[in-house]
Amino acid sequence: MAEISRSEQKRLLKQVEATARECLELSETEVGRLGLDDQLREALAVCRSIDGGGALKRQIKYVAKLLRSEDLPAIQRFLREKKGSKLDADRLFHDAEQWRDRIVNDAISSLEAHRRREEPWPTNWSSAAIDEVMVSFPDLDEHDLRQNAHHYARSRKKMYYRELFRIVRAAAEKQRQRETLAEQGVLQRVNTP
């Protein structure tokens, strides 16, 4: 077996220490799901009670030492999945904000165009943003979406602005749940003989 250089050993130890730091951020229930032994759980609890400084660094090194005797790839996989779900939630939030802003901008520009022409602004005004969001999230109530955008463009009340965000975010979350269930169903069908 090839010998690992000291530099490579140090890099590996730093990775294990980084994993130990990430384990500190887990809740007790998440640590329970990992199935860690009692000694490691106690070391993590002690680590959480230390405010900082050299004692915390020593305790993290101790936790890293204990982690090396555990199934490290499984722990790192769990941490990556946890991070990924947080990133997905953040992305969903930002996407919902962008959809809302596009709808609001369409509504405001349509209202201003109708005012320049001195025409009444219809509640069923044409909007490319609403058409696109309806394609992305077919479960959306188009009437509710148009009505809130219409009210916001006319009054600039934040209540309608927030309601538009809530509607789009709820539809995006529902779509994500449906996709997750579909993926799980596909995985279950693939895994069953």
Automatic annotation (TrEMBL):
One Pfam family here: DarP
Keywords carried by this UniProt record: Cytoplasm, Ribosome biogenesis, RNA-binding, rRNA-binding
Protein name: DUF615 domain-containing protein
PANTHER family noted in UniProt: UPF0307 PROTEIN YJGA
Record-linked InterPro entries: DarP, DarP_sf
Origin species: Desulfofustis limnaeus
TM regions (residue ranges): none
Leader sequence residues: none
Coiled-coil ranges from the UniProt annotation: none
Organism placement in taxonomy: Bacteria, Pseudomonadati, Thermodesulfobacteriota, Desulfobulbia, Desulfobulbales
